[in-house]
Every structure is written in C-alpha cells, then in structure tokens.
Design goal:
It contains twelve helices and 30 strands. It is α+β, with helices and mostly antiparallel strands.
C-alpha cells in the first residue's frame, strides 16, 4: 500500500504541473474573441477569480490548490468569453486539440440493441395431463408410486375396485348375451365404459372372457414424466379426484425476463440465442413465440417465451442466459451515449458550429429516447448531420457552469450563483424499515467497502472475495427479506445488485470489474438512502472517471481514496453527502 501511495504521489505531482500548463492553454484561449480584451478586463477588475477546471464550484481570489482534488487553481471568469451568448462557448482550434474534444455527426438510422436476458426452462403448460378418477372406488394396486417416474402411453398406472364399474361390466355382459334382440343396448353399455376411460381393448377382453374384472386398470393417456402423485394404495377416491399429474418433456419453454424499458425491443418471431450453466459452450436458438401482455408489478419485468423441442439436455428449472438482437423498424436521430449529459429530468448535448472561422459549442437540451447499445435515440432537439461532442463534453460543461451559462446544472443562464449539489439519487425514505434489516444492510455495505478498498489497491482477486461476501450477506437477507411499503423497492434493488455482482465475480479483467462496480454503487447508494443503515457512510464522486463521465462510490471515511483511478488520481473526488 505504501508503494502505491508513493507512485501515486509522484504521478499526482506530474499531473499538477501538466494541469497548470493545460489549464492556461485551454481556458486561456477558450471562449475569447480577443486576448487583449481579456487582459484588460483582468487589470480593470483589480483581481482575478481562480477556480479548479474539474470542480468549477471552487472559487478563490488567489492561486492555490483545489481543496477537493489538490489540482492547481487556474484563472477563471474573465478569460472565458464576452458573456453576450449564454448558450455557447468559443474555443480556438489549439484549445480544442489540447482538451481532446471530439465530435461526430448525428446519424439517422434504425436503432439496434443486444439484450442480455436471464431465463429458465419451464414445462410447456399445453403438455400437462391430469389423470382423474371417472368413478368412485378404492386403489387396490399402485404401479407408479413415485414422482419423476417416466411413463408411456397405455402403461398401467394403478388398479381400482369400483362397485359402479362392476355393475357396468355386468350390464355389458348381459347386453352382449341379448345383442341379437337389442343391439342398441350393447352399444350403449360399451359407450358407458368408454366414457369412464376404459379402452376398447379392455372392453373386448371383458366381452371375450365373459367375466367381470374386479380390479380395473387405469392406463396412462400419454407419454410423460410424473409431476404429482396424489394417491396411495388402499386409498378411496371419488369421481373427479386427480390421481396423477404428468407432463411431456419433449417440448419445453425457454422463458426470459425483460425489463420494462426493454419492451420496445421485444417482438414475436425474433430469434433468441441462449445457453445453460451446465454446458455454457453449447449454444441454442429459438424463435420468440409469445410476449406476455401483463407486466410483473413487483419486478417491473415482462416475460417472453420461446418453444424448444428435441433438446435432451435441457430440463425444467435450468437457469438460462439469453441474448436477443433486435432492431426497430423506424429510423431515428441517434448520438453516442457519451454525448449526452444526463441529470435525470434533463438531457443535454453540446453541438459544434463554425461562424466566420470561429468555433462555437452550443449547449442544447434534447428529448431523450431509448438507449440502443452505445447510442441514445434523440426524439427532439437535434437534427441529422449536426456535429455533437462525444468526448470532452464534461470539460465544456464545467466551463459553462463556471461562467454561469446554460449547462447541465444550470437550466436558467444568468447572473446568479451556479447551482451546486444536484442529487441524481433523490429517493423517498421508507419509515417502516425494521432495525434488524438496517443492521443486515450495513453488513452488505461493509463487505462492499472492503471490496472498494481492494479496488483502490488494484487487487482483483481480493476484491472478488469481498464482493462474494457481499453477495452472501445479501442472500442472508433474501429477495423477500423486507416487508411493508419498501418490499417491492428492495426486491428490485436485490435483483439489480446481483445483476452486477455476478459479472464482477466471474471476470478476469479489473477494469470490467470497475465498470460493474460503478453501476453497483449507484444501486447501493439508492438502497441506503431508501432503507437506512446502522452508522454513517459517505457518498463520494469523481468527475474524471470513465472519460469524464463521472462515477460515485461509498466509503466509511471522508478521506478520498478513488477506486476508479487509483494509480493516476487517487485523491480526485469529493464527498457528496453523509448517509445513515
């Protein structure tokens, strides 16, 4: 750990020196039409405002270090435009190159997306057969006497003694003896036995032998596996009693759960590829035959179904992992997901314009549609062909915030303080959460923090051990471990956290682990805010993580130890809020 701090300290000093040069070059020219104008403004004002390029809410009247990330403060407001247009930022070509700002044209095409869906093998309900008693009687012999037995059509399942059936056989023999005088009576006697599910072969045997069969065989009506055995030897049964429940496994269902937001991508006839845990290398495919019309209110998912047949190694109850590639039929304007600065209720992009050899970046609020892989659908606010920033949007937005212009955090541009402390995790707190549950959730958080500390040390195997403990602590709570008003919310959080924990425990790539940790952290932060825990933890944030997209995490101390950028920016971050 000491070597890690030493290396990090050396890198941090290098970054600070480089930051001074880059800050001056980038923001010394960004947003200015005239260098002479900026210099004059500084002199006339009698002083400069100094800020951090990564934390524009920090302002000081003299140079120094940022109290949040320890980067050098740079000159701010007077060097960033003339203030005439509150929706644009002017940057020189050299500043654009230094800030590594990259743009791409918005495109119009049919969105496509690959869905990864959890599923399971289920019995085809259309192949379930229930064998019932068609007459009252007593079970004298039970040929199939355990659940799971494989049976064939026509096989003897049991034998039953029934006074009513004995009487019906005597009527048959008497009718046969008088068949010459009254053939209709014989036909009626035979039909009565057929309605009681006696086969034609059984009826012929009674007629040919001339004897009444006291213990009549109940035959299997189809091939299948016994799912339920509802009788025992010497048991009395009534007409209509279900004796056996069986199903044919030659045709099964592959049932998958898709989230509510994935519903536009679901349609019958689409091919889904899947595999089971026992043989992950063996791939199967099937066509979606049915999309359930009802959304599961507790999990916010909809079930989709595919028919599978001839798969001898697939058994009901097996866990499946499905992959569905879907394409919408309508064309939409789309931009890379990294172009969108999303605050929850608002979505913002930066559009590049060139006017009289001057490069402008315009802040544009857009209506966001569904996500399609690495792209977002833009429903309104952007036209095809417009150049949007897909790398470096956060840098531009930080400068717009510093100048109090229209930006991600500032909806109404104007001469007022920049709003700070926006909370994307705002949720309602449940008041009826038991103290025992809060204590159990604290154990989950403790294991999570241990895993976070190992990510700081870049120790993948140790981190996986800690996150495995976190998963075990969650399983001790259980998906239904919380009653009351927060029951559905905990079920959703439980499933979502498991959805990111499982890839973290399986991957060999620590960067992939950090990516899943990012989403896990967001879900856990909401859960802690909703349900509460014993003690206090700190929600922290680094704006530099994931190419300036930013990422959150939870720590048990206020000191910043960045799990996303431990080798280059260990101390980059800030405490957002204390959670308890």
């Amino acid at each position: 750990m000491k070597s890690l701090f030493a290396n990090t300290y050396f890198r941090l000093i290098s970054v600070l020196i480089l930051g001074i040069l880059l800050g001056y070059l980038i923001f010394g020219s960004a947003g200015t039409h005239s260098h002479e104008h900026s210099a004059g403004a500084d002199t006339e004002s009698g002083g400069e405002v100094w800020t951090c390029s990564m934390h524009p809410n920090v302002r000081d009247d003299q140079p120094g270090l940022c109290p949040i990330c320890a980067m050098d403060l740079i000159p701010a407001s007077e060097m960033n435009g003339d203030g005439d247009d509150m929706y644009t930022l002017v940057m020189s070509e050299s500043a654009i190159r230094l800030a590594n700002i990259q743009t791409v044209a918005a495109k119009r095409e049919k969105p496509s997306k690959t869905l990864h869906l959890p599923g399971r093998v289920e019995i085809d309900e259309r192949n379930i057969t229930r064998v019932s008693a068609h007459f009252p009687g007593r079970i004298t012999d039970l040929k199939v006497n355990f659940t799971g037995a494989e049976i064939r059509k026509g096989q003897v399942l049991a034998r039953v003694y029934s006074p009513d059936l004995v009487t019906a056989q005597r009527e048959l023999l008497e009718a046969r003896a008088r068949a010459d005088q009254n053939p209709a009576l014989l036909r009626a006697a035979r039909q009565k036995l057929r309605q009681w599910e006696l086969s034609d072969a059984q009826i012929r045997e009674i007629e040919q032998s001339g004897r009444v069969e006291r213990n009549v065989a109940i035959l299997a009506p189809a091939d299948g596996i016994v799912l339920g055995l509802n009788v025992a030897r010497e048991q009395y049964v009534n007409q209509g009693t279900v004796l056996f429940e069986m199903a044919d496994f030659s045709n099964l269902w592959a049932v998958f759960d898709a989230y509510e937001e994935d519903m536009p991508w679901l349609s019958t006839g689409s091919k889904i590829h899947f595999h089971d845990r026992s043989r992950p290398s063996v791939k199967h495919q099937a066509d979606i035959s049915f999309v359930e019309p009802i959304l599961q209110s507790d999990s916010r998912t909809v079930r989709i179904r595919a028919d599978i047949s001839g798969q001898e190694n697939l058994r009901p109850g097996m866990i499946l992992r499905g992959e569905l590639k879907s394409e919408l039929q309508e064309e939409f304007v789309m931009v890379p997901a990294s172009s969108v600065l999303w605050t929850g209720p608002r979505s913002l992009v930066y559009v590049r314009h060139e006017e009289n050899d001057v490069v402008l970046f315009e802040s544009r609020e857009v209506s966001l549609g569904n996500r399609a892989g690495d792209f977002f659908i833009i429903e309104d606010g952007l036209s095809e062909g417009e150049n949007v920033v897909f790398h470096g949007a956060f840098v531009i937005d930080s400068e717009m915030q510093l100048m109090d212009r229209f930006s991600m955090m500032n909806r109404q541009a104007g001469p007022r303080p920049v709003p700070y402390g926006f909370d994307p995790f705002a949720v309602d707190r449940y008041d009826d959460v038991p103290e025992e549950f809060k204590s159990q959730l604290r154990e989950v958080v403790t294991a999570y923090i241990t895993g976070k500390d190992y990510l700081v040390e870049s120790s993948r195997e140790s981190a996986q051990t800690a996150f495995g403990e976190m998963k075990s602590n969650m399983e001790r709570i259980g998906e239904h471990g919380l009653s009351g008003s927060g029951h559905s919310a905990w079920m959703q959080a439980y499933r979502d956290m498991n959805g990111h924990l499982n890839p973290m425990l399986e991957t060999d790539d620590i960067e992939e682990m950090r990516t899943q940790f990012r989403f896990l952290s967001e879900i856990l932060i909401r859960a802690v805010r909703q349900f509460g825990i014993d003690g206090v933890v700190y929600q922290q944030y680094c704006p530099m993580a994931f190419d300036d997209e930013g990422a959150y995490w939870i720590s048990d101390e206020e000191q910043i130890m960045n799990p996303y950028l431990p080798e280059s920016m260990l101390m980059c971050g800030e405490v957002i809020e204390a959670l308890e």
